[in-house]
Amino acid sequence: MAVENIWFLCLLSLGYCGLSVQVPSASPQLSLLSTSPTDIRAMWLPMSPQLSRGAITRYRIDYRALEQVDHIYSVEVGGNETQVILRDLKPNQTYQLRIAAGTRAGFSQSSEWASHHTPNLTQVLFAPAELKVRAKMHSLHVTWQPPPNHTQITGYKLSWQELDGEEQPNEEKPLINERIQQIKLRKRVKHHEVTDLAPDQLYEVKVWAFNKQTEGYPAVWKGRTEKLTRVRTTDSLPPLPPISVRARANSSTSIWLHWEKPHFSNVRIINYTIRCSPAGIRNASLVSYYTSSSQEILLESLKPFTSYEIAVQSNGVDMSGPFSSTVEESTLPDRPSSPPLDMQLSALDSYSVLVIWRPPLEPNGVILTYWILYTGNISHPDHLWINLTHDGSVNSAEVQGLMSGTRYYFKMGACTEVGVGPYSPVKDVYTPPKKYGCVLSFILQGLYCVSVVTI
């Protein structure tokens, strides 16, 4: 009988343990964005043990179009997921989404409906692709790739803010640090290091494209900086910087960088951080950071014919050392990426035209010559236009030997040692006809006077 009682107590204990798993007391907060006009990306953070009340096994996301609120669709994902993409939606439509978290005991109460409007097919800037963030104790290294319609953008904006730690119940909004920091970055920049952060804190990072007319949809990341860890006294000194740092131009937009490990190091070096910026510039938005686990790296997406200052830092498991001495290297020249500016035409007389211009905004090298192309027939291909070359040090030229009373079309290009760049927009000028009228009138008046005297 005693044995039976023991088994009964064991089974009761096991049953009690099973009943200790409950439905979550809250649901996550949704963050919504669109990377195209036909999708919505829903994101959330993992729930704390206090709110989940057991292991989260799945999430259910309900969504509906605002025009058809009675038609609700659902998607379920695993408990280890923190995002889902809803595809094949309609552009320029308002959708509502909500989420519920589930344990073995069942689902929590769904969150409140959150609204999101999918972008229009036209005049929209998509979110940057492949947003990645490497978290350290006091910094976040942010990288991304351009959006699909990157030719329409002027640059990027990046913002970050500290969030208040844990997920909150539905009726409570997460506390947000009011100090949102934001910077502008050039179109070529695809890296940025956010520094001076607190360890083991929750941050939100957003990156979005912009142009003169509008701002695009953001790519969003949420996560924590690394925890502050104690290190042994023998390992308290940071690693020494690399030595023998050498840079060599590889192309007009890339530089090969090589270095060697320091001769002595009291900590194990796990990787290296490379700092690269245009020489003589102290604007933080123009500084790029790269990471390499080997002792070389190809720095890409640089500007042609530009001098860069580069330094390398050794990183241990929990600390980073000082940067090495700076080395300087220039990228190779390239064709100009922009045409001569502000080309102006004026007819000097019936047979010549004065052409005035300014150097291109992005010469990408030393301008050796300017090409002036002109024709009387705008439908002609380039090889049938007359091509005049002028020294790269001048900004005006007189084109002679033209025909009077003719409309001519002009365009210009600048040429470096690599080749000619794009041509400027076509402009036209009209050479006035030769003035025969006054001479003919004088002759006719003379003949009239002679005839009167003869009579």
UniProtKB/TrEMBL annotation:
Keywords for the protein's UniProt record, in alphabetical order: Cell membrane, Disulfide bond, Immunoglobulin domain, Membrane, Repeat, Signal, Transmembrane, Transmembrane helix
InterPro entries (UniProt xref): FN3_dom, FN3_sf, Ig-like_fold, RTP_Phos/Ushers
Signal peptide region: 1-17
Membrane topology, record value: Single-pass type I membrane protein
Assigned protein family: Belongs to the immunoglobulin superfamily. DCC family.
Domain Fibronectin type-III: 24-121, 127-229, 241-334, 339-434
Intracellular or extracellular location(s): Cell membrane
Name recorded for this polypeptide: Immunoglobulin superfamily, DCC subclass, member 4
Organism this protein belongs to: Cyprinus carpio (Common carp)
Cellular component per GO, a single term: plasma membrane
PROSITE patterns: FN3
